[in-house]
Amino acid sequence: MSSSTSQAVFVLGGARSGKSRFAESLIVDTRLERHYVATGRAWDDEMRERIAQHRADRGDLWRTHEEPLDLVAQLAAVDAEGRAILVDCLTLWVTNLMMAERDMAAEFAALTEFLPKARSRLVLVSNEVGLGIVPENRMARAFRDHAGRLHQMVAAESAEVYFIAAGLPLKMKG
């Protein structure tokens, strides 16, 4: 376990578990300026619709920043006292990094090194993908393994960690 002074909150859950809604609720009740860092890419019409729906659901109180690869640089650019930053989601970021053949260990280390330095309230969302069967292909197994390693690193550096199932949060740390 890390001895960092990070105030980050990490929210994990399965697909459609309610994790994004819960993560937003951790910020909505604050007086902080709200920033949303979206890592997803609109590869097809269905993803474009999802992104548009998420944006509409959040409303005008959020400033949205789309950054599929250089997450730490985007966080550093937005980070300031009096702000809250919600990152949704780390597993999409992992996918983007893999597709761009980036150095996963270096990217993950940069993120976890940034967390204790952040001046903003950070809430990071990710899909827990390690609870199912072993994926049948090499790339899917590599994705699951990368996500699992990243989740362990982020959880170690976070002040609070929640697991969401059926819309219900289980506080795991903090």
Automatic annotation (TrEMBL):
It comes from the Bacteria. One of its GO terms (biological process) is cobalamin biosynthetic process. It catalyses: adenosylcob(III)inamide + ATP = adenosylcob(III)inamide phosphate + ADP + H(+); adenosylcob(III)inamide + GTP = adenosylcob(III)inamide phosphate + GDP + H(+); adenosylcob(III)inamide phosphate + GTP + H(+) = adenosylcob(III)inamide-GDP + diphosphate. Pathway: Cofactor biosynthesis; adenosylcobalamin biosynthesis; adenosylcobalamin from cob(II)yrinate a,c-diamide: step 5/7; Cofactor biosynthesis; adenosylcobalamin biosynthesis; adenosylcobalamin from cob(II)yrinate a,c-diamide: step 6/7. GO terms for molecular function: adenosylcobinamide kinase activity; ATP binding; cobinamide phosphate guanylyltransferase activity; GTP binding. The active site is at H54 (gmp-histidine intermediate). InterPro entries: CobU/CobP, P-loop_NTPase. Keywords: ATP-binding, Cobalamin biosynthesis, GTP-binding, Kinase, Nucleotide-binding, Nucleotidyltransferase, Transferase. GTP binds at residues 13-20, 38-40, 55-58, 66, 88. Its EC number is 2.7.1.156, 2.7.7.62. It holds the Pfam family CobU. It is an enzyme of class 2 (transferase). Belongs to the CobU/CobP family. Catalyzes ATP-dependent phosphorylation of adenosylcobinamide and addition of GMP to adenosylcobinamide phosphate. This is Bifunctional adenosylcobalamin biosynthesis protein.
